[in-house]
Amino acid sequence: xxxxxxxxxxxxxxxxxxxxxxxxxxxxxxxxxxxxxxxxxxxxxxxxxxxxxxxxxxxxxxxxxxxxxxxxxxxxxxxxxxxxxxxxxxxxxxxxxxxxxxxxxxxxxxxxxxxxxxxxxxxxxxxxxxxxxxxxxxxxxxxxxxxxxxxxxxxxxxxxxxxxxxxxxxxxxxxxxxxxxxxxxxxxxxxxxxxxxxxxxxxxxxxxxxxxxxxxxxxxxxxxxxxxxxx
Length: 231
What we know:
mainly alpha
C-alpha cells in the first residue's frame, strides 16, 4: 500500500500545470450545487410553517392546502435536480481527476463525459448508494457512516467498468473497501489542516483544496484496486 505522502505526491504531480482547469471544474460543480439548492431555498423563504399555521388558525384551509402544494412542488423539484443532475455531475467530477492521474488532462470535458456518458446507469447508481446509506443511517448514525465509506469507490467503478450492473459496482466497492475504510477516513482527516486554512479565505481556498483532495482519493482508489488485483 502506498503511504499518504506518496498518494498526495502523485496527486500534486498530476495537477501540475492543470490547477487552473481544476479550479474551474470545482467552480462548475459549485454552481451546480447552488442551482440544486435553489428550490429548497425558495421553499424555506416562504416561512412555510408560520404561514401554514396562520392559515389553519384562520380557518382558511384552501390557502393552507395551496401553500402545502407549492412547498411540496419545490421540495420535489429539488429532489429531482439532486438525483438527475447533481448526481451525474458529482460522479463526473470525481472521475475527471481519476482520468487526470491516467494522463488525460481534459478535466472539464471528462467531467461531463464521465458523468453523463452512461447517464441512467450513473443516475441509478448514485441514487441507490444514497438510498442504502440512508436506510443504514436509520439504524443510528454510525452504521450509515460505515456504509458511506464502504460505497465510496462506487462512482469510479460505475464509470470505469460500465459493463457491471449498479449493484455489482456497489458490491465491488464494498470488496475494495474491506479493510480500507479506516485508512480512507484517516486520509481524509490528513487534509484537515488545509481545510481549516480555507476558513480565513471565506471558502475560496476550497477551489484549490477540493481538487487536491479529489485527486488524492482517486489515487487511493487506484492503489487499493491494484493491491486487490481488481480488474
